[in-house]
Structure formats: structure tokens, C-alpha cells
Write a structure and sequence with these properties.
The protein is α/β, with parallel strands linked by helices. It contains 5 helices and 8 strands, in the order E-E-H-E-H-E-H-E-H-E-E-H-E.
Length: 147
């Protein structure tokens, strides 16, 4: 069976950064080294939450030199996410800057090398009414259209 042709527009593309409580020992470093991160646990998705993404990002981190011990938590619960980071000394997370902008008790630092990115694209069946609408909106919003 032939794969359907798709029209896609990238609506979000942000690098992931290290998120920690504001008084975390690594907060004093402008860019933590991989060796600094090796002693930290990574607050990560619970099994079954965001399949694919939950496996891909740790694999990318391992290729960059960091194989974190994962600390699973339901990330849909923002209050639990913030509480876990504030109450567990060796716990950090990966998020985009906007995910923590409204939480003064949290801060972020860049990863030591080009980081994994969080990307979101809208997709429609090529040639469809939805694809034409997607291309119109992408042009208006200055979203890149993917081949």
C-alpha cells in the first residue's frame, strides 16, 4: 500500500533545557557539564505517557554522553512536577523555557551541546481542503512548511 502524501507545518520548535529548582547546586553554572548531570536523576514521563518521545529523548541524551537515571512522574500534573523538583535534591528535568517561565521557584540552564528539540507540527493529507487551509495559516503565521 502506498504511503499517503502529507502537508506539514512546524508550529513549535524549541531546544530542551535543564530545569531545576532555583537553589539547586547546578543553578550557579551557566552551562552544566555532562559530568555534572551524571550525578542527577531525570524527572521523566511515566511508562505509557508520550510513547516514542519518552524513549527517543533518553536515547538522544545517551548519544550525547549522558544516560540519566529516570525518575518517572505523570507530567500532566504540573503541580506534582514542580513539587518533585523542589523536594528532591538530585532531581532535574528537561523542558522548553516557556514550560517554566511562570514558575519563579524553577530555573533552566542550557544543555552542554546542541540539545534534543521539542517539535510540534500540524499535518494534513496533501491536496485536501485541510492541507490548503494549513498552508494558508502557515504563511500567515510564518510557520515553516515541511516537504
Amino acid at each position: 500500500m502506498k504511503e499517503p502524501q502529507l502537508a506539514q507545518a512546524m508550529v513549535w520548535d524549541e531546544p530542551l533545557r535543564v530545569v531545576m529548582r532555583a537553589d539547586h547546586p547546578l543553578s550557579a553554572r551557566p552551562v552544566p557539564a555532562w559530568s555534572d548531570l551524571a550525578t542527577q536523576r531525570l524527572l521523566w514521563y511515566d511508562a505509557g505517557c508520550a510513547p516514542g518521545y519518552a524513549e527517543e529523548i533518553p536515547a538522544q541524551l545517551a548519544a550525547l554522553g549522558w544516560s540519566p537515571r529516570l525518575h518517572p512522574l505523570d507530567h500532566d500534573q504540573q503541580a506534582l512536577f514542580v513539587h518533585a523538583l523542589q523536594s528532591t535534591p538530585d532531581l532535574i528535568a528537561l523542558r522548553s523555557v516557556e514550560a517554566v517561565a511562570d514558575h519563579p521557584q524553577l530555573m533552566w540552564r542550557p544543555l552542554p551541546t546542541p540539545p534534543p528539540r521539542e517539535r510540534l507540527a500540524l499535518t494534513a493529507l496533501a491536496g485536501s481542503r485541510q492541507a490548503r487551509l494549513l498552508r494558508t495559516i502557515a504563511a500567515r503565521m510564518d510557520w515553516p512548511v515541511l516537504p
